[in-house]
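Appendix B, record 7
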Amino acid sequence: MDRVFKALADPTRRFVLDRLRENNGQTRGELCESVRMARQSLTQHLGVLEAANLVSTVRRGREKLHYLNPVPLHEIQERWISAFDQPRLDALSALKQKAESPMNAENEPRPEFVHTTYIAATPERVWQCLMDPEATAAYWYHHNVSDWQPGSPWAHRRLDGSGTDDVVGTVADVDEPRRLTLTWAGPGEDRPHGESRVTFELQPYGDTTRLTVTHVNLRDDKEYRAVSGGWNFVLANLKTYVETGTTLPVPAWRP
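Structure tokens (predicted):
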């Protein structure tokens, strides 16, 4: 938490976070243009933001994309705001967004969720827990079912024996044990703006694995909030399961 407050204390770093909030997934060069700062100076600011886990990075070929990670900000909100008057603050926030939003938002960028966590295990072990249906049953409360070959279908299936799939899609990309990309939708769901995708990226980081989950092309802010809450718990539960063999208390959304 000290690193988060240190990072937020600087107006330039807050400006960088604002630019990422408006257009997530920018390269350092794009940020240099919008912030109007020398590359070396911006690199130092980005280092402070990454150390505070306020910014996550994802490699795309030769490019390094920077994403706003809202988790530390959410933790601040939970500690100092939610316990006091959250319903009234939510109502004020909704009113403000409605007043400031354009009448037609069809051309607005679709929301993206990015979360980075560090797990005390090898990438191979984390990869196994992402693919194994019995492991996902333990920490995700669903069997993830597929042969995990590119182009194959996959399903997020309930544990009650009903055969009900809450999420379905296609395995878009597999690079074991580094990257897995899945399309993501409810069964029969119509997504007029195109398919939603989830990418798991695993990188060795000392004796740990840096896991970054990116969920792109979300429908709207409502879906973003729902996805954020679900992913935050699932990834915390995955970390706990891999490191200790146990899981966190059952969430309210478990079927």
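Remarks on this record: The first strand starts at residue 55 and ends at 60. Confidence is low (pLDDT under 50) at residues 102-106.
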